[in-house]
Amino acid sequence: MLKYVIRRLLQMIPVVIGATFILFCLVFALPGDPTAGRCGDRPCPPAYVAAFRAEYHLDKPLLVQYGLYLGRLLHGDLGVNFYGNTVVSELAARYPVTLRLAFIAVLVEIFVGIAAGVIAGVRHGGFLDYLILVSSLVVISIPIFVIGSLAQLVFGMKLGWFPVTAGDGSWSQLVLPGFVLGALSVAYVARLTRANLIDNQHADYVRTAKAKGLSGFRIVTIHTLRNSLIPVITFIGYDFGSLMGGAIVTEQIFNINGIGNFIFRSINQRDGVSVVGAVTCLVLVYLLANLLVDLLYGVLDPRISHD
Amino acid sequence: MRRITPLVALSISGVMLLSACGQDVAAPNESSSSTASAATGPAKDGGTVSIRGCTPQNPLIPSDTNETCGGNVLDAVTAKLVHYNSDTAAPELDIAQSIDTTDNQHFTVKLNPGYKFSDGTEVKAKNFVDGWNWAAYGPNAQQNSYFFEPITGYKDVQCGDDDCKVKPKATTMSGLKVVDDHTFTIDTSEKVSNLKIRLGYTAFAPLPDSFLKAPTDKKWQKFPVGAGPFTITQNTATQIVFKKNPDYGGKFKPHVDEVTYKIYNDAAPAYNDVVANNLDVTDLIPTDQLTNDQWKSDLQNRWGIRQSGVFQSITASSKDKQLQNQDLLKALSMDIDRPTITKQIFAGSRTPADGWVSPVVDGYKPGVCGDLCKYDKTKAKEMYDKAGGYKGTLTIAVNGDGDHKAWSQAVCNGWKNDLGLNCQLKITPDFKTLRDQITKRELTGFFRTGWQMDYPSIENFLTPLYATGASSNDGDYSNKAFDAKLQEAAAAPDEEQANKVYQEAEAMLAEKMPAIPLWYVSTPFAWSTKVTNVKLTPFGTIDLTAISVK
């Protein structure tokens, strides 16, 4: 197990280097001067442009820039962005918010999604099954910005049950955005759980369990569900990984100062240092989330061994 | 000029000034905030208010910030020699006790005693002189350094080359001299009749000794120290908190004790929060709310529209030989249906331009553009044919991250239908790309230009834009008679006389049409049930000294 983890961690090194290099090239090879538009409708003073280029090594060749960046990265330094703040401090201010939001969304996925999937799977072909199938289809087909704006209008502004926006990023403010963010994945989780559960109901071990006189409830919870959850866990794990990258649309609607908004703003303002720093961080988070999912397989199904 | 944050511009698509331009303008009678009854009421002291803010994009140094997010923060914490009246935009003395000159070239500034920076030190003459010298010094690479250009010796403190490898000849400008603690003199290299008005811009704020000792201190750049009515107590990614400055010695005292700038990345959430009374003021209304006056019914009496000093135009590229024909430009200008476009596309909240200068400033004269800015398609066609028409495809370049497609398409279609020319839009992905292409003179045809005033003077709408070789003269307009008029106006004995000559200069623009005027921009804003006396300044920013809690 430990050996497996170490091997996986070592494998991450080339991935991180490769990913940051591609990213670095994409960001800094973008056409356009990063100081263009910074001084409004007039060109920036030449001294300002020169100082700006020197400070961010933009006057050096791309490979040299990347080398300098990688050197700093090894020290955990993601650089100072175009606004004079360290990228690490910018990320540190926003990551807790994104983490809370992702956590709420995943909790919603797990509880609502799996419960709906189990009900639909057990009542296979019944009214509840069709209800869940149809409603999840509806949710999947509506774009998230519609769900988000609608939820904000109805639950926030008209009914007043939830705060309208979540600027501070506290738990109570993030409940509604969390539900919105989780809504889409809930539909997928429910469908995935249902399909696997139905498949497994015809497996031999279920017949054996029935034969030895176990109740239907125990068969589902102890045997079938556990085996059906592997693809579901995979999905939720990857989803958590991508949620950690921020949810640009949801964060925009609810004014959440999370990673998504930060990256969005940085891209618009051509703040390359911030973009590269934040996305490098995302690559790491995503890799770790994947590792965690792989380790969870072993817990759910002891036949899967990592040794 | 002060730039609006491009991000906000992009995401809101349309409620922005220059970078994205979608701000809405009212009919002139709506131009003050008194349109709604709740706007005024007895001012009560104390209390806290929250206001929509955005993330500052530069270190918070007065001479290094030229966009509104950081500019609003600095305006709250700094006091300048001159303060602009929030209703009339007229300059009023603030830190200055007097600014005297006999020849518009040698100025003596006397300071009011008793002004203190929020760190407790007194505002002295050297805080101005040293501060301005620091800001103008080339190697310090300040974005707003060009504001000091009129001062004698400015050239000597600039770098010898573009990369600043050759250091400047001097570290201080010879035109600035401290006489005593409360007096200093300013000499300008040429006559400047409106220097007093200019001195109210943020870049001219005095800098405390604590800054001048350590200008690179990162903490100062987040918590700037000024002599203004407020001081910053908290500055995070989500909010910036201002408290009343206990040492404030000026007469523009705020009513509220505390102001919180809540950071919003988009117009819609801020607007929704104001409707739900979670936020007290927003100066950004989403475009979809403006259409059909949806916002007015949502907000009842909690809204206003304020005309602000922004002028929008299209400029002919100097590379396009055909567009050097001024009769052609006049014909094209006459064939733009400004009233219909401002009504249909901008929900009736922009006003058609009748000249090149915003109506909010001192010196504005109505109707300078005359018939050339009035829609008359028969006459336009006549003039167009006489001028020889335009061969090939005429393009209008606009940035795609604002609400510019609709109006430019309308202008283009009008030309196509009425004049029978080939017209096409050229849409750049964002404001920066458009500016980049304009600066490098890569475009042909027309491109979108806009101007937000730095200081409320007619001069600010003329000199930086149309003087030969001026920094924002994107169309490379050059007219010796016009330049001479500007110089004459700058040397005029008083402002009234100066304005008259500036108006004559503006009238000369109608002969050559260096830019085709489109419309003036206003800022719609909204407030919660908790606050009263909500006003916007002529710069479209929230007047923090007027607002009070009910």
Structure description:
The complex is a heterodimer of chains A (307) and B (550). By secondary structure, chain A is mostly helical. Helices cover 74% and strands 0% of the residues of chain A. The longest helix of chain A is centred in the middle third of the chain and has 36 residues, at 87-122. The model of chain A has no long low-confidence stretch (mean pLDDT 83). Chain B is of the alpha+beta class and 550 residues long. Chain B has 17 helices and 19 strands. Chain B has helices spanning 6-12, 68-77, 125-136, 195-198, 209-213, 218-222, 267-275, 287-290, 294-299, 326-334, 338-344, 377-386, 405-419, 431-439, 463-466, 480-490, 495-512; strands spanning 48-53, 82-84, 91-93, 96-101, 106-111, 176-180, 183-187, 230-235, 239-244, 258-263, 281-282, 303-316, 351-352, 393-399, 422-428, 446-452, 515-527, 531-532, 548-549. In chain B, the strands form five sheets. In chain B, strands 11, 12, 13, 14, 15, 16 and 17 form a seven-stranded mixed β-sheet that branches. A four-stranded mixed β-sheet of chain B has the order 1-10-9-8, with helices on one face. In chain B, strands 4-5-7-6 form a four-stranded antiparallel β-sheet, covered by helices on one side. In chain B, strand 2 (82-84) and strand 3 form a beta hairpin. Chain B starts with 5 loop residues before the first helix and ends with a strand.
The fraction of residues in strands of chain A falls at under 5%
Structural shape of chain B: globular
Radius of gyration of chain A: 24 Å
Count of DSSP E strands of chain A? 0
Query: What is the count of DSSP helices of chain A, taking H or I runs of 4+ residues?
Result: 12
- State the low-pLDDT regions of chain B, or none: 3-38
* Count of DSSP-assigned helices of chain B: 17
Q: Tell me the greatest interface.
A: A-B, 49 and 64 residues
How helix-rich are the residues of chain B, as a percent range? 25-40%
Distance between the termini of chain B: 35 Å
What quaternary form is this? heterodimer
Mean pLDDT of chain B: 85
Number of strands of chain B: 19
Structural class of chain A: mainly alpha
Low-pLDDT stretches of chain A are none
Main β-sheet description of chain B? 7 strands, mixed
Helix/strand class of chain B:
alpha+beta
Q: For the CA atoms, what is the radius of gyration of chain B?
A: 23 Å
DSSP helix fraction of chain A? over 70%
Strand content of chain B: 15-25%
